[in-house]
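Private note to self, pasted from the team thread so I don't lose it. Backbone tokens:
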């Protein structure tokens, strides 16, 4: 996936990259009243003119950006050449968004065949011929993964819990199709639509600094009723490219939006991290006059400053956000509220928050955010660790770190005591637990986390009121 230039380089982009007009169609929809071009002027811009400075604010349709998990890597596609048509590109002016969704309630009546769920994916290079595939993976039961309280009972290797997949195929039977993939790697066909009516391609505004050719938007839609999703049903989605229009499951994905694909050892781990980092949305959240996906937390940090802990966080957008509660814990399991900070209600702009814990725990402790909506619903952030002074005599080492999941541990400083060893995931859930004797602590201990998704984990040793912690990275 490409990191792309800002509008200050507009003149360079036009002369060196674009041979076409940004905002015009590369593959036009049928003439007349098309969902891709409601006013029929031949542009995907609100003004009916080329993009000028900012794609997102100039979209003709009220696209909602999908949340971004990590910054994009250069050349992170698993299939196809760098800068090719399978390489997804992001927008630096809008939180690095690369994919969008929109609920088009054409006639204003919910629940009929005129309800459309539309998608947009930005690609590094136009694809006017040949094989191109796009996949939208949809989680409708809000369960994903192989372990933990939200594991999907139908998860299998290659499909960690998606129920539906939309596949776009541009060659060899071109079509936009819906498949039921619950507990399956291939799926059963539910509905199919002609590519000529349900797909369009338009030239985007931003161009890659390192790629030549014309970057484009891939726009497509399906009927909401064919998905079996009601206007108020929550779901989570991820969008990316595939080779030749096949499934993204079982290793078939090329490049998925909103994440650096290559930091994950396999695609199941990628999908689990991408979806579990997304707040569920309803079609109504993506429709006209709505503000897209609920509170999107892009950063949360805790930093020790003398005898206090400074806490900062940033949201990319907020929907019906009443307030945040900062919570702290000594063990990463039992949390207590510390400070409450008012939210912004509903906001489309980036907002920064800052507060201070004036009476933090000594030694290592953990913080998290609890975000509460006006209707009382709440979600938690990942944990962050802070060390306010070294109070532990326990010395903890692990190697190799990072690893594929297998670590060697060495512990000293327990004396004649026993201790408890815990491993926590970023959500604070215990994924490993064992009581250690003094004899064990004097030798190497093998720890195997290879059955867990890639990411950051917290290894903690607790002996009475003394504890020590170490961060582990599974890649």
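Design output:
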């Amino acid at each position: 996936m490409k990191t792309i230039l800002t509008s200050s380089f507009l003149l360079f982009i036009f002369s060196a990259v674009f041979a076409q007009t940004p905002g015009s169609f590369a593959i036009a929809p049928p003439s007349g009243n098309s969902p891709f071009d409601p006013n029929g002027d031949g542009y995907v811009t609100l003004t009916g003119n080329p993009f000028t400075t900012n794609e997102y604010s100039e979209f003709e349709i009220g696209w909602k950006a999908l949340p971004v998990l990590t910054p994009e890597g250069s050349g992170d596609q698993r299939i196809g050449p760098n800068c090719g048509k399978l390489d997804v590109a992001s927008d630096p002016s809008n939180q690095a968004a690369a994919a969008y969704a929109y609920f088009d309630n054409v006639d204003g009546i919910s629940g009929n065949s005129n309800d459309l769920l539309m998608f947009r994916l930005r690609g590094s290079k136009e694809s006017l011929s040949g094989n191109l595939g796009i996949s939208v993976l949809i989680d409708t039961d809000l369960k994903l993964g192989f372990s933990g309280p939200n594991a999907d009972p139908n998860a299998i290797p290659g499909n960690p819990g998606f129920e539906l997949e939309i596949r776009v195929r541009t060659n060899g039977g071109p079509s936009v199709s819906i498949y039921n993939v619950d507990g399956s790697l291939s799926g059963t066909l539910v509905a199919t639509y002609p590519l000529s009516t349900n797909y369009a391609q338009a030239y985007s505004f931003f161009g890659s600094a390192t790629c030549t050719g014309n970057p484009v938007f891939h726009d497509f839609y399906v009927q909401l009723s064919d998905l079996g999703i009601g206007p108020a049903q929550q779901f989570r989605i991820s969008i990316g490219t595939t080779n030749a229009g096949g499934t993204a499951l079982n290793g078939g994905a090329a490049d998925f939006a909103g994440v650096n694909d290559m930091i994950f050892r396999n695609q199941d781990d990628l999908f689990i991290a991408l979806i579990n980092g997304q707040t569920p949305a309803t079609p109504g959240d993506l429709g006209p006059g709505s503000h897209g996906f609920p509170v999107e937390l892009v950063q949360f940090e805790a930093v020790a400053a003398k005898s206090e802990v400074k806490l900062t966080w940033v949201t990319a957008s907020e929907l019906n956000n009443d307030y945040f509660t900062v919570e702290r814990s000594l063990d990463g399991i039992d949390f207590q509220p510390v400070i409450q900070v008012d939210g912004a209600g509903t906001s489309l702009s980036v907002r920064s928050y800052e507060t201070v814990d004036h009476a933090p725990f000594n030694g290592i402790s953990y913080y998290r955010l609890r975000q509460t909506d006006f209707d009382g619903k709440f979600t938690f952030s990942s944990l962050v660790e802070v060390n306010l002074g070294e109070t532990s005599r326990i010395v903890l080492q692990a190697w190799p770190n990072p690893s594929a999941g297998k670590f060697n541990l060495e512990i000293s400083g327990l004396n004649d005591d026993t201790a408890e060893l815990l491993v926590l995931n970023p959500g604070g859930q215990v994924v490993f637990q064992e009581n250690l004797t003094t004899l064990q602590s004097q030798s190497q201990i093998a720890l195997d986390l290879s059955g867990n998704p890639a990411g950051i984990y917290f290894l903690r040793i607790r002996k009475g009121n003394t504890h020590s912690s170490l961060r582990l990275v599974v890649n």
